[in-house]
Design a protein that fits this description.
Layout (H helix, E strand, L loop, with lengths): L1 H18 L6 H18 L5 E3 L4 E3 L1 H24 L7 H20 L3 H19 L6 H32 L4 H8 L6 H17 L8 H8 L2 H26 L6 H20 L5 H17 L8 H26 L14 H4 L1 H15 L5 H15 L3 H27 L11 H19 L2 H4 L4
Antiparallel strand pairs: 1-2
Family: Belongs to the complex I subunit 2 family.
Protein name: NADH-quinone oxidoreductase subunit N
Subunit structure: NDH-1 is composed of 14 different subunits. Subunits NuoA, H, J, K, L, M, N constitute the membrane sector of the complex.
């Protein structure tokens, strides 16, 4: 609870900077504030704290994922300095929205009550709706914001209807009562219907097939930094909340695992096949995110410390995403689109950023030395031990397919001639790209540092 209060206070402070015209100090002070929040989060490790009538429970799961969310938000705030340089009068609003969004993310891994869960997911969703439509003079941004708002509102309605059915069946929002009901054979039938509806709402949030149709258009139309936010912290948060709900509910539905296997297979296959056809980098990464949603869903099937595997995979994917989007922001600045042709010759004109983008894409594809390889290796081992060999075969085939579209971008950087020189060396952008990829490589070399957090 202390972490939520601190983050919310930092968000209010961001708005105060606008009042006192301290915009130049905004980014460094917010980063310092987030580092303080990270220290506060670390101080609660190995403690179990229940507060507000068991609405929120702090444990190692919530502390580990909250730490990841704070680190990702620090990177996103750092990228904001260069991205919003033409909108200095609104930068405090944009950063404040990201900080408030972080509060929703923390609530989604700390909840012990479905009311707090819904509050967290709405804070996250509303922040992303606003950010998606934040470029109000751009028709594509307006379209992306409206499309995401309408589809997201529908998903939230389905999710809320599911929560109502669960409450109607057992008379409580408390997760401990729900866990007991999930193991009972005497619970009302609409309890299971409620769980199915809640699951559908969350599958929409993580853009898993067949609830992924909004992602390509929204990712392409939204401002690039908003796309980075949705594809990293947005997706990872929704998956962490889904994992927590799935493990607590522990429902006696024999078909549940079969459904997860089918959705996972479809997400990986549809995402990768559609990504092969894309010429726009943001749209390609949208379909890549759909395929990674399939891999993330596989963590629900593991039987050997799946929370640690989910944390490791989420961190490796999100850090690679931050590194990739840092380069995309640099290359596509002041351009009308994010097509692959914009990256032609980047290996010659800017070898450092080309190497960073290559490393990020190789991590997403699951190539050693990067953390993405070890994340998939551990995930496949757990799923095989759980008896889902066919799913692992499909996952391996899809990992090979993904190399095709990632290398399409890599080849454009190193084999094509540059379109034009790209002046300027934005320090925060370079620092974010280098640090995020370095953390990804460090996770690959020392995976136990992250895995031991949830042992």
């Amino acid at each position: 609870m202390n972490l939520l209060i601190a983050i919310t206070g930092l968000g209010v402070l961001c708005l105060m900077f606008e009042i006192f015209n301290l915009r130049k100090a905004l980014v460094p002070l917010v980063i310092l504030g987030l580092l303080g929040a990270l220290a506060l989060d670390i101080s609660e490790y190995d403690a179990i704290i229940k507060s507000n009538n068991n609405m929120i429970t702090v444990n190692n799961f919530s502390v580990a994922f909250s730490g990841l969310f704070i680190i990702l938000t620090i990177f996103l705030v750092a990228l904001s300095h260069n991205f919003y340089e033409k909108h200095q009068t609104k930068i405090s609003d944009y950063i404040a929205i990201k900080v408030f969004m972080l509060a929703g993310c923390v609530a989604l891994v700390s909840f012990q009550n479905l009311a707090m869960f819904f509050l967290g997911i709405e804070v996250l969703s509303i922040s992303l709706y606003i950010l998606a439509a934040s470029n109000r003079l751009n028709a594509k941004s307006n379209e992306a914001g409206m499309k995401y708002f309408l589809m997201g509102s529908f998903a939230s309605g389905v999710l809320l209807f599911g929560i109502c059915l669960i409450y109607g069946a057992i008379g409580s929002f408390d997760m401990a009562v729900i866990e007991e009901a999930g193991m009972s054979a005497a619970v009302e039938e609409w309890f299971y219907i409620g769980i199915i509806l809640v699951s559908i709402g969350l599958l929409f949030k993580i853009a898993a097939v067949p609830f992924h149709f909004w992602a390509p258009d929204v990712y392409q139309g939204a401002p690039a930094l908003t796309t980075a936010t949705m594809s990293t912290i947005g997706k990872v948060t929704a998956m962490a909340a889904f994992f927590k709900l799935a493990t607590v509910m522990n429902v006696n539905l024999p078909e549940a695992q079969s459904v997860i296997v089918v959705v996972s297979m479809l997400s990986m296959t549809v995402g990768n096949i559609m990504a092969l056809r894309q010429a726009n980098v943001k749209r390609m990464l949208a379909f890549s995110g759909v395929s990674h949603a399939g891999f993330l869903l596989m963590t629900l099937l593991g039987n050997d410390n799946p929370p640690a595997t989910l944390l490791y995979y989420s961190a490796s994917y999100a850090l690679a995403g931050i590194a990739a989007f840092s380069v995309i922001l640099y290359v596509c600045k002041n351009r009308d689109n994010e097509d692959i042709v914009n990256f032609n010759g980047l290996g010659k004109s800017n070898p450092l950023l080309a190497a960073i983008l290559t490393g990020a894409l190789l991590s997403m594809a699951g190539i050693p030395v990067f953390a993405g390889f070890f994340a998939k290796l551990m995930l496949f081992g757990q799923v095989i031990s759980a008896g889902h060999i066919a799913l692992v075969i499909v996952a391996v085939v899809n990992s090979i397919i993904s190399v095709g579209y990632y290398f399409k971008l890599i080849l454009a950087m190193y084999t094509k001639e540059a379109n034009e020189a790209r002046p300027g060396t934005p320090v925060l952008l370079y620092a974010t790209a280098i640090i995020s990829l370095s953390l990804n490589i460090a996770m690959g070399l020392f995976p136990s540092v992250v895995l031991d957090l949830l042992t």
